[in-house]
Design goal:
about 170 residues
Length: about 170
């Protein structure tokens, strides 16, 4: 935002010290020094803007540690604006879906998430009660041979928790 000037200088290797660059340059006859205002200087052969204002929006999208250094991943300029636009579309669609403004969207989603957890808990409780009734009915219809009670029930698409409830209920009923 400060629109710092970016200055490019070609210097002899012995003059590099006066620029206080971060890393020593490769051994070459002339070194290309890129200075960003009084903020930074480095030996670089890449493309550069005339001023930092040309860059536009910068969005840091992540980082990773590589060989003791940190590599920063960023979206710059038009890519950053497209990313921002895409995210704004998501937020607007969510606001429309949740019938609320951006200022309370996160709280609405949290409330909905809590309601879903409560519904899932109640559903699990009802499923456990239902499977206990099934177990009671199966015990009532079970075959008794000497001192062994044979209970047979085939379940399809039933999770392990409900099977455990069934077994515990059978043991409690017998």
């Amino acid at each position: 935002q400060q629109n710092l000037p970016v200055k490019i200088s070609w210097v002899n290797p012995e003059d590099v010290e006066r620029f206080h660059i971060r890393r020593p340059p490769p051994e070459v006859k002339k070194v290309r020094i890129v200075q960003v205002g009084d903020f930074d200087a480095s030996a670089c052969g890449g493309l550069h803007v005339v001023g930092t204002g040309e860059v536009g929006l910068i969005k840091i999208s992540g980082d990773e540690k590589i060989r003791g250094r940190i590599r920063i991943h960023a979206l710059i300029g038009e890519r950053a604006f497209r990313d921002y636009d895409k995210k704004m579309q998501v937020v607007q669609n969510l606001c429309q879906l949740m019938t609320c403004g951006e200022d309370i969207l996160l709280q609405k989603v949290r409330d909905l998430s809590e309601q879903l957890k409560e519904v899932q808990k109640n559903y699990q409780k009802l499923q456990s009660e239902r499977i206990s009734v099934v177990a009671r009915d199966e015990v009532a219809e079970a075959i008794q041979l000497e001192n062994i009670l044979f209970v047979q029930k085939i379940f399809e698409n039933t999770d392990n928790k409900l099977l455990k409830v069934f077994m515990e209920s059978v043991l409690n009923e017998s």
